[in-house]
Design goal:
The complex is a heterodimer of chains A (146) and B (235). Chain A is mostly helical. Helices cover 59% and strands 0% of the residues of chain A. Chain A is built from 5 helices and no strands. Chain B is mainly α and 235 residues long. In chain B, helix 1 packs parallel to helix 6, helix 2 crosses helix 5 and helix 4 runs antiparallel to helix 5. Chain B is elongated and about 70 Å long. The chains are: A mainly alpha (146), B mainly alpha (235).
């Protein structure tokens, strides 16, 4: 532990943390400002890029990854790497589908009104379908004809 | 957390210059500290993956209902979201200052910065409460409770009956709710640190719990950094 206390002043310090906070607040302002301008489909990409810069600043300086043993940064990056793999395969899949949601999604609300004649609570159930019986005489006559 | 439990080893005799927080199964204090760090970082990686799944689900749903998501997001107050972003960023700063104070044996400063961090966490939750209350009064609830309950249709929606609105608010409440739960857990952990700091348990020789709770607090902040533009600023 003595090694940690010796280096503690070289690691960051209040001045670095305060500068980092100011940088993060400025980037928050830029995020809000950028959302007011329409960049078309790039809107989300720009917002996520600024958020990623902020996350990297938090990780490097507030979470000490800049000065820590690299094993911690490797674990952190592994988390994001696997999230990236997850996201990548989802995007590949989405681009090859017309309907991204399963077909059996329960219907939340009927978009069109159901006619009253189809309401099972007020309309009696229809009579079961019965096959119409052929007239007996006609059937016999056919057989006799041959 | 078991590796960081400060247990007084009164039997002693492991090595010279014995640190009372040194647990006997670690060769050195530094190894003990590094092991705890690897543990918390592994946990933080699982946190990233847990929220990551929700983010991916949100992205897929936004691709499915782009128009509904833009219309629904107008019911969120971006000023409230921006305020909470600033509150969390400031709380991250007070947290890292608390870690620095613990590292440099400044007990009074450590307690002060811990209190500031807890105060920021409560401000965040109060703002969140007002946001949720507003949604409640506007009938903007998740799942089948969206709109007028059974029908899921809300007067004034451009596409009444579309799943998109309920989907947006389902993700909104799930993700901000899970994030809010992390804030509450953080408050409990910070209060525990404050009590320990009051008993003078932390010093430059041992401040592992302050460091680890700090890392947890920063990942909660990091998740909000992504939640804010994705929910409050979409177009």
């Amino acid at each position: 532990m003595s090694a940690h206390t010796e280096h503690s002043h070289a690691h960051g310090g209040p001045a670095v943390y305060t500068a980092n906070l100011i940088g993060l607040l400025i980037l928050t302002g830029i995020t809000v400002g950028a959302s007011r301008i329409d960049f078309g489909p790039a809107n989300t990409v720009i917002a996520l890029s600024i958020a990623t810069v902020k996350a990297v600043l938090v990780g490097l300086f507030f979470m000490h990854l800049k000065w820590d043993k690299s094993v911690n940064a490797i674990i952190a990056l592994a988390g994001f790497l696997f999230l990236g793999i997850f996201l990548m395969f989802d995007l590949i899949d989405l681009n090859n589908r017309r309907d991204p949601l399963p077909r059996n999604t329960p219907v939340l609300a009927a978009p069109t009104a159901v006619p009253e004649s189809m309401n099972p609570l007020t309309t009696p159930a229809p009579k079961p379908w019965v096959a119409p019986a052929k007239p007996v005489g006609e059937a016999e006559g056919e057989h006799e004809g041959h | 957390m078991s590796t960081t439990t400060p247990e007084l080893h009164t039997h002693g005799g492991h090595e010279e210059g014995h640190n009372p927080y040194h647990q006997h199964h670690f060769a050195t204090m530094e190894q003990q500290f590094d092991t705890a760090k690897i543990g918390i970082w592994s946990f933080l990686a699982t946190e990233v993956l847990m929220f990551g799944g929700l983010f991916v689900g949100y992205g897929i749903s936004q691709g499915k209902y782009p128009a509904e998501f833009v219309e629904a997001h107008a019911h969120l107050d971006w000023m409230m979201g921006a305020l909470n972003t600033i509150v969390l960023l400031v709380s991250s700063w007070t947290m890292v200052m608390a870690v620095d104070a613990a590292k440099t044996n400044q007990r009074a400063k450590l307690k002060m910065y811990l209190l500031f961090t807890i105060a920021c966490a409560f401000i965040f939750l109060i703002v969140k409460y007002f946001e949720y209350e507003h949604k409640w009064h506007e009938d903007l609830m998740p799942f089948k409770y969206y709109g007028t309950g059974e029908t899921g249709i809300r007067p004034g929606d451009l596409m009444p009956g579309s799943h998109g609105y309920a989907t947006f608010f389902s993700f909104y409440f799930m993700m901000t709710g899970l994030h809010g739960f992390h804030i509450i857990v953080g408050i409990v952990l910070l209060a525990w640190l404050y009590v320990k700091a009051g008993r003078d348990r932390f010093s430059s020789a041992y401040y592992t719990p302050v460091d680890l709770v700090g890392l947890y607090w920063h990942i909660v902040d990091m998740i909000w950094i992504y939640l804010f533009p994705l929910y409050y600023l979409i177009s």
